[in-house]
Here is the input.
Amino acid sequence: MKLGVHLVKVSAGDHIYTYLCPMKMFRLFLGFVCVMYGNAFYAQKVRVADEVQFQSSKLKKAFDKNDETAQADSYYNIGETFFKDGNFRKSEEYYTKAKTIYEKLNDRPNIEKTSRKLAQSQEKQNKIAPAISNYSRAAETGVSQSKAVNSNDAARLSAASPEVKAEAIQNNILMNEKQNDQADLAVSYSQMAEVNLQQNNVAGAEKNLNRAYKISKAEAPQQALEINQKLTDFYVDNKKFDKAIEAKKIVLKEDFVKENSEKEVEQIRELADIYIKKNDPEEAIGLLKKSYRIALEKGHTLEAQKSVKKLDSLYNVSGNTDASVRLYRDFLGKLPQLVVKDKSLVDEKVLEDTEQRISQLEKEKELKDELIRKKNIFNYSLIGVLAVLTGLVIFILLILRKVKVRNKKIALQSLRREMNPHFIFNSLNSVNHFIATNNELEANQYLTRFSRLMRGVMENSTEDFIPFQQELDLLRNYLALEKTRFVDKFDYEIKIDESLNTQHLKIPGMLVQPFLENAVWHGLRYRDSMGFLKLTFGKEAQYLNITIEDNGIGIEESKKQKTEHQKMREGRGMKNTLERIALLNDLYRQEIRCRIIDNKDIPGVSVEIRFKLTAI
Here is the structure.
């Protein structure tokens, strides 16, 4: 097998290395294997699967007896299981189900308890608005101190000022100490550390994180690990690598880590990450080898794979591609046996089946309730009819939408074609001027250029977007024609950003020309001295910025120069262009923005057009 070679960038500490990686085929194969066994990589622990399975059995009994309180209790307990394991999305789901039933039963103590846990799950997911709402709901249904704690949490999340946040947290610390609520006390100290960092109080943040860790390690191991990670991240961010290493080594000595090989591997790998950031790759490699060895011994497929990937990165940074090859071969060779040993596959299957069973129980309950209410098959027929009607309504709406879009495209095509006679009419006026002044040579030259210009305009008149280079050629040709017509009135310049790929971009055709025409015919030609017109195409991120600047007489003065006959006529060119812009935005989501500025301090008008770049 021939190994593919490609360039890879890897960050180690403050350095970025670029190296050749001859592992492409190995990684592709590994990715395929990981997809096959992907469920194992997100498995819950045995205790989670067992507890959820136990609660699902209680839930079934509650459904059979139609005991809504027992149903809510089971949902709450499942939510607690997921919460303690750090799966806050799932805990939110089951807390919500429990709260809905408690609300129906008006069980105020359980509403308060569940609303608080639901708010904590949402806060962990950074869902601030619903978390505030649930903390407030918990405060409404709570009593005495629990009411105050929830009110403080709602105020903490709502406050913008660090000082207000700190006051709310301090109040909770005092109440949690009084109630001896160690889990919430640890959380409060961790929250206070975050406020300390906002206030640049580094010493206070360090002190509060250490307090939080000491309290939580005895009561809530998962919470302790989260706080330890915050603490080590804090040290690393402040370049205190030795302290970060010391903190991580301390957690590795804890019983709740030593007794859980999966957590031990994870913590060893995090310690290796700190050494990488400290620019000590040798120590990191040793730790990653250790984490890999433990993962293989204990049957943790995901953790082994993560260790392999990090080791591979470090080997390639040092140019040790042979070690990378040996590492991947070793992992792939042991993978089948590792997967067999990995109990998380079974655990995940148990958990998945249990959740499906719960879902099925809920559906059966809904069906049973429906049958009790209706006692016949009429509802199914009614649902079928409603589904058909809904499908019919959706079909009609889709047809109407297509018709609406088609009408808009026809309108856009009509506007685009309307630009051509408008443009031809103005150009023929210029030819008429040359003939009237007996300037036959200029008239012939003008007609030659005009025919080339019109050929280009006609060729692109059926398309909403044309290649940038073609539009640029048309604009150059047009300005050359106008310069011929008003030779002593203005000069012009076209400036194009060098980063623009004029061969591979598309822009709306005839979008810029009307603004150039306005600048010449309503501004520059009325000047007593030579004027100047500047057309600029610039690139900003994924947007094209077009600027048209002239030092003509300006919009207000141009209005004064109009004859009574001109004032009675409505200018179609500019109105047409603005209508096209609105339709292009509606149909293609182009986000075209057009701004016309009548300069006040200096004579002239500026036009700014901005829209997304579109590749051919």
Q: What stands out?
A: The first strand starts at residue 6 and ends at 12.
